[in-house]
Design goal:
The longest helix is centred in the middle third of the chain and has 14 residues. The chain has a four-stranded parallel β-sheet with strand order 2-1-3-4, sandwiched between helices. Helices cover 29% and strands 16% of the residues. Helix 5 links the parallel strand 3 and strand 4. The chain is an alpha/beta fold.
Length: 170
């Protein structure tokens, strides 16, 4: 279901995430503030402008997915992402997958990111960065939704543009 847009701030406390993205692990913020039920004021000042349209034509792209250990179809989802990226004119030069919940302790923490700063673990970030350098990738496409901050941190670390599958044109 590439192209769906989900706003993390709008999620209710209990939501069947599997229904939304076909068991792709979408992480909630790991810390939820307790708020009273008064209507929130919307803030427009200081917001980051929307991302410019994604142009992947002629670029080499590296694909990344973050999945629950319960997700058995992760290769199919990565193949679908590869087909969508190739349809936009990019060439897929590599894939990287992080699975959460494979170990004993991971099962209890499956709904949280390894890192709120990068979504994936530090070791996986280093692995992706070296793959970008080795393959000359000009873009990294995450199957999972990313926050603006995660996008900025990962772009700086990888030295290329980082986008999420939800940012791809439908």
């Amino acid at each position: 279901m590439i192209g769906a847009s989900i706003h993390v701030d709008a999620w209710p406390d209990r939501l069947n995430i599997d229904r939304l993205l076909g068991s792709v692990l979408v992480v909630k913020p790991h810390r939820r503030l307790q708020r009273d039920r008064r209507p929130r004021k919307t803030r427009t000042a200081g917001r980051t402008p929307p991302l410019p349209p994604v142009v992947l034509a002629g670029k080499d792209a590296l694909l990344v997915g973050y999945f629950s250990a319960e997700q058995k179809r992760y290769t199919v989802l990565m193949d679908e992402l590869a087909a969508a990226v190739e349809t936009l004119g990019a060439r897929v030069v590599g894939r990287s997958v992080q699975r959460r919940g494979v170990s004993d302790g991971g099962v209890r923490t499956m709904d949280r990111p390894y890192s709120s700063r990068t979504l994936v673990s530090g070791g996986k970030v280093r692995e992706i960065a070296s793959a970008c350098e080795r393959t000359g990738a000009e873009a990294v496409v995450f199957l999972n939704p990313l926050t603006d901050h995660q996008r900025e941190v990962l772009s700086e670390t990888f030295g290329c543009s980082v986008i999420s599958a939800v940012d791809l044109p439908a």
